[in-house]
Amino acid sequence: MAILRRVAEAAGPDGRVLLAEINLPEMGTGLAAADTALRVAATVPVPARTVEAVKDLAGRAGLTPAWQGPVGPVRSVVEFSPAVAGDRVPEVAGA
User: Fold this and answer.
1) What's 64's domain CATH number?
2) Does the structure show a pLDDT above 50 at 95?
3) What gap in Å lies between CA 1 and CA 63, rounded to an integer?
């Protein structure tokens, strides 16, 4: 959350922030699949977010959706702009 807030600040009032969420498909079974699953779990704590979850997270960081690309089973892309005072989503305790 702190990083996303800093990105929103760095974008400035006329800036844009592009968030791309990638969900890796299931790799099957076996040692290679287990290795991939372990690496993803160790390096990406929450690899699967819905577009609505991404929008909520960005809103709490002071960003508002400006454009959304097509949503597929593997990838989503949403463009945000800094929120105006009335657009901000209230801070959630513990976020």
Assistant:
1) 3.40.50.150
2) no
3) 12
